Amino acid sequence: MATILIIDDEASMREFLEIMLRREGYDVLAAANGEAGLRLLSQDSVDLVITDMRMQEVNGMQVLATVKQETPLTPVILITAFGSTKEAVQAVKQGAFDYITKPFQIDEVKLTIAKALETRRLTAENLYLKRELQQKYRFGNLVGRSPQMSQLFQLIDKIADSRSTVLIQGESGTGKELVARAMHYRGSRRDRPFLTVNCGALPEQLLESELFGHQRGAFTGAEKTKEGLFEVADGGTFLLDEIGETPLAIQVKLLRVLQDKEFKRLGGTKDIRVDVRIIAASNRNLADAVAAGRFREDLFYRLNVIPLVVPPLRERRGDIALLLDHFLEKYCQELGQPKCRLTPEALACLEAYAWPGNVRELENIVARAVTFQGGETIGLESLPEEVTHRAAAPPPAIPLASSSEVDLDAELNRLERQYLEQALSAASGRKTLAAKLLRVSFRSLRYRLKKHRLET
Q1: Which of 211, 192, 319 has its CA nearest to residue 257?
Q2: Strands 262-263, 272-273: parallel, antiparallel or unpaired by DSSP?
Q3: 8-state DSSP, 245
Q4: Measured between alpha carbons, how far is 376 from 144 in angstroms, rounded to an integer?
Q5: Predicted local confidence at residue 453, as pLDDT
Q6: What is the pLDDT of residue 300?
Q7: Which strand (E) or helix (H) includes residue 98?
Q8: Is 309 exposed, middle or buried (0-12, 13-18, 19+ CB in 10 A)?
Q9: Of 68, 78, 61, 67, residue with least CA distance to 6
Q10: Do the domains spanning 3-125 and 408-451 agree at the CATH topology level?
Q11: Which entry of 160, 175, 245, 294 is 20 to 30 Å from 369 by CA?
Q12: pTM of the full predicted structure?
């Protein structure tokens, strides 16, 4: 229920509007002069102001100026007498939503009010979504406090406002698109479009049409002219994901866009100029692709103006616990359940895992565990087999023939040493984590390491 403030020094007009709007279901505040109206405005939250243009002391224009300064999202509708439309038009130029002229039709007033409130709603929603997007990609989804990630965050801040092309390289699942989005939403183009296309996911002709658009009749099925993504992204940022998969014929056209900021649609003759910041991403080493003749050298150097590498998860193991906490909170919140936690054994196992799929794999594992776990904790039984086995795989069993003899003490010592070495390797030398993997106390681990002369 919207709250509407009526300001009018004419009692009959004020009371008429108040009664009419209450019948329409609005919450109504009323003031007999501009000063009282502004006082109410400072005390209550108001969705719309309807004010008479001409009043003693504080007039409608002064009310408008104060509203625009104090609560700029609040629309103002001015009531003016017949013959005073020139002043009303001037008020609209200064920020009033609209004006209505006395005498007026009731339906006209209702329609104007409905439009003003809808405009306010859409404006507020748009601003909210923009703030949410800016917050979301302010590093919120790029989680990490390792030296590698801290350095990456600093670099993103430095280049966010640059017009230069950026080449992001890193393994699949490391978060290259999140890095590109963070650059866009921290830069001056944040209010303009951010578009992305996977260059390896589309056939050549379809990719060309998506990037550059086409004229009607350019090929079979082109029944109408279509804008390309470069046109749609004008003024904003365009991420060319998996750029290394782009066919050589399209690489030539991309080179022209990078050099001249212009291109032609398929079947078109007119040059189209755009202002687009291009970010490219690849999970393969483009320098190797150039050497192998799969990627144009001149395009590579045009893209590689600012090179940026996203480290794999195995090289920033200190961020694993932080990422786990982030995704646990995210998916528990999505499912509407209290935040669950990992058992020490599950955490140790996940920290020791090699993560070939990087952050994407970690997120998928957490999402699945949260979905299927039956309590407040997630243990080893909720983790995939490949994670629990690869974290610290047991040594192979020793075949024992009935005719052979075994020095049991020697074999047990050998097995213990082998377990210790594997646990230390899986834990990257961290003894606390190795103790968790072996389910022994830290003191016991120290004793066993000293016994086998493995302590450093």
Answers
A1: 211
A2: antiparallel
A3: G
A4: 25
A5: 85
A6: 96
A7: strand 98-102
A8: middle
A9: 78
A10: no
A11: 175
A12: 0.60
In the prediction, which pLDDT does 287 show? 92
Residues 203 and 287: their CA atoms lie apart, in Å, by 24
Concatenate the DSSP letters of all residues of 297-343 into one string: HHHHHHHTTEEEEPPPGGG-GGGHHHHHHHHHHHHHHHTT-PPPEE-
Domain spans in the chain, listed from the N-terminal domain onward: 3-125, 142-311, 315-391, 408-451
Tokens of 95: 């920020």
Q: What is the DSSP string of 167-192?
A: EEE--TTS-HHHHHHHHHHHSTTTTS
In CATH, what number does 3-125 get?
Answer: 3.40.50.2300
**Domain 408-451, CATH among 1.10.10, 3.30.230, 1.10.3470, 3.40.225:** 1.10.10
Residue ranges, the chain, pLDDT below 50: 392-395
Q: Which of 254, 303, 278 is nearest to 184 (CA)?
A: 278
How far is CA 60 from each of CA 26, 172, 450, rounded to the nearest angstrom? 22, 60, 87
Which residue type occupies 187?
G
Structure tokens at 229: 């993504």
Reference 420, options 378, 373, 371, 453; nearest CA is: 453
Token representation of residue 324 = 């786990």
Give CA–CA dist 36/32, Å, rounded.
Answer: 7
- Give the span between the Cα atoms of 377 and 396, in whole angstroms: 31
